[in-house]
Design goal:
binds pyridoxal-5'-phosphate, 37% helix, single chain, disordered N terminus, Ornithine Decarboxylase, Chain A, domain 4, globular, 7-stranded mixed beta sheet
Amino acid sequence: MIPDQTPGTALDQTRAPYFQVLLDYVDSGVIPFHTPGHKQGIGMERAFRDFVGENVLAIDLTQIRGLDDLLQPEEALVEAQELAAEVFGAEQSFFLINGSTSGNQCMMMAALNPGDKLALPRNSHKSAMGGLIMSGADPVWMQPEVDEALHMDHTVTPQTVRATLEREPGIKAVYVVSPTYYGVAADLEAITAIAHEYNVPLLVDEAWGPHFHFHPALPLSAMQAGADICINSTHKMLGSLSQTAMLHVQGNRIRIDRLKAVYKLFLSTSPNLVLVASLDVARRQMALDGAALLSRTIEIANDARARLNEIPGIYCFGEELEGRPGVYDLDPTKITITVKDLGYTGYEAEEILRRRYNVQVELADLFNMVALYTIGTTTEASDALVYGVSELARENRPVDIFSPSGVLDRRIKSGTYHLPKIPPIRLLPREAFLADTEFVPFKTSAGRICAEVITPYPPGIPVISPGEEISPEIIDYLALEKKAGVKMQGPYDDDLRFIRVVR
Ligand SMILES: Cc1ncc(COP(=O)(O)O)c(C=O)c1O
């Protein structure tokens, strides 16, 4: 049963107008001579149809009469996006069907012209590099606060943002990532105030924070903090389907006509309407039940964090980190499980958890694993994670599954291994990406200008990007990550024996 309208909203948040038009279309029994070719499931391969069920195929429709047009919304999609804007605290919200990846591209293309300087943190997701390549913007990298003990970057501080704006005149926009993959949030109110003092917009990659708006125990959302534009991967933390995300905007620092033009450029003319409807219902769910659902999630997560912290050799950071540079606030629904004291890399621990205990975490890196707690996490699932980690901590380090010979390099074990410094920028990302290039052996590529993005994945943060000079330190670092088993995204040669450089 759908509860009453949420107090404090002017619009009727019990409605899911877009889901409803799809249901009405199915009910009306229209005879389809339109795409998709499977015609509401009839032509679909049987095993797949039997598995996914007929209903989802019945609403896999295209934007024909009455189903509105995401590129030019006039009917139910206007209402659906207005309802979203209201609860996410935006002036306008746009539904995305190619994730926050397309959101990052849209934000940058909307705010920047070729050659415009953009201040952004080094730990931006690789999709931000896509935005830089497409827009032709000139990155002014900001160093996020580095946590050597946890071997991770936190957020950029307001002081860093101010210093960057002072040091580099002519910056046209500030872009920050908050929260990080690990759930660490930046002081967005202070950063917004600084950006606005310099009369430039603040763009926020809030891919990991679509739930922030719905619970007082969570960090302030980007829109609440006054940011001009932000993206939310609703599929990551809320109930919408994979690939869905939202872009929220407010104020007059982002030109809406330009944003809409860019949005139309990126969007498929055949959006998957099941995805679109899932955004509509995820918004309704949050509007009506978000606070209660998230209270339960936070409780389960906090309980798990406390139990995990009792396991010898395991550390899950929490409130004790708050107030450190770059750690303004924390999202309690993310649990970072630091396993380095057990003598495992995060990758090894992830694999053991999966193989032996059938538990799959979201992310592993050299020292850590990250477990996501969302409105879909049950206490039973949480117990399975805590059990798996406690067993993992009791085990002797297995010699059979992984190759311990040298993987945990002494530098990593002692916690003194440093993330590589930002290399010198020799060309704009766009120039290098589109330049005449050649392949050279990676090991001996120091001094050359990189023409590709090289991103250990997860967490998806580039170590080197097009236009940057390859340094010995970066070669060393990436070689170590590869040795530890991490996959590299971006290079043409997956094994990274060769690298594409500017000729
Ligand atoms: C910080 C950040 N921004 C953007 C993205 C891209 O989001 P999506 O997978 O929704 O395209 C990710 C994905 O992991 C991310 O971590």
